[in-house]
Design brief:
With 299 residues, the chain is α/β, with parallel strands linked by helices. The chain has two domains: 206 residues, Spore Coat Polysaccharide Biosynthesis Protein SpsA, Chain A; 58 residues. 48% of the residues lie in helices and 19% in strands. It is built from 13 helices and nine strands. The longest helix has 24 residues.
Length: 299
């Protein structure tokens, strides 16, 4: 049995997929299996994966999203440690070696998270150590204070398989906030360790920023916050944060729906925002403007 299962969710990823897979096979740590979960691709992704022969195990499913694909990979895996790699990211040579060393040496650590660099669509480096550079600011944000942990970029993590399964794996209903959601649940299973040396580079491009439509993202925002309300039921400080964040969610959602022309539904959402936080004065303004002529609804 290999020590690590590397799971690569694939959906129409032929442009960058070879670079991602080659970065796995270039690892200094060699005791792994590679599982590509094809999420209903319609391009040449499967043919490209086939070029790697028996080096890659292929699992196919109807299109269900990246979270469902990652979960499918975990179900088909056999190793005690799980690593995910998005089809448009790439790992550096020592990524797995360094993270495996942490999990082997520190049994109470359930997840090793490496620092990450950022690149553009063409692979040009945009920022070195992006995760560490943004860490302090992120933790001061409402979302950072709620989670009290680093965002889990899926390509940057190595996690114990048993802890991931106990935490419930990824929520396939989410099309946004899935990493934050997993972080909150997985943190209850044990300690995280952040490695300051960059172990991977993630790509920022149009497709990665628009993988889910606006409605799917805002519904995921609501689902995530409602889940956090249940997860942190006994934590008064976090409950206050969640209340404020839900009010902002419904307010922004309501404004968007009003602008799209469904004023009755938009007003319902704006009123729901005010039920969560009656002191949200901007929402009162948005609600009043929803009764004004078209073109009068601002931000």
């Amino acid at each position: 049995m290999p020590k690590v299962s590397v799971i690569v969710p694939v959906y129409n990823g032929e442009r960058y997929l070879r670079e991602a897979l080659d970065s796995v096979f270039a690892q200094t740590f060699r005791d792994y299996e590679v599982i590509c979960v094809d999420d209903g691709s319609t391009d040449n992704s499967l043919a490209l994966i086939g070029e790697y022969g028996e080096q890659v195990k292929v699992v196919r499913q109807a299109n269900a999203g990246g979270c469902a694909a990652r979960n499918m990979g975990v179900q088909r895996s056999g190793a005690p440690y799980i690593a995910f790699l998005d089809q448009d990211d790439r790992w550096y040579l020592h990524k797995l070696e360094q993270q495996v060393a942490v999990l082997e040496a520190e049994p109470d650590v359930v997840l090793a998270l490496c620092n990450s660099d950022r690149m553009d669509a063409e692979g040009r480096l945009l920022q070195v150590g992006a995760a560490l550079a943004e860490r302090a600011t992120r933790r001061l944000s409402p979302l950072g204070r709620l989670i009290d942990e680093d965002q889990l970029l899926s390509s940057a993590m190595l996690v114990r398989r048993d802890a991931l399964i106990r935490a419930g794996m990824y929520d396939p209903e989410l099309r946004g906030f899935e990493d934050f959601d997993l972080s909150a649940r997985l943190r209850l299973q044990g300690r995280f360790k952040f490695l300051e040396q960059s172990g991977m580079c993630y790509r920022v491009h149009a497709a990665s920023l628009s993988h889910a439509g606006g409605d799917a993202v805002v519904r995921s925002r609501e689902r995530f916050l409602l889940k956090m309300r249940g997860l942190y039921a006994g934590d008064r400080e976090r409950q206050r944060l969640i209340l404020t964040m839900l009010a902002e969610c419904y307010s922004d959602w309501g404004l968007s729906v009003v602008r799209a022309g469904n004023r009755a539904e938009g007003r319902r959402l704006l009123r729901r925002s005010l039920r969560e936080d009656p002191a949200k004065f901007r929402t009162y303004s948005r609600l009043i403007r929803s009764f004004l002529p078209t073109g009068s609804v601002g931000g």
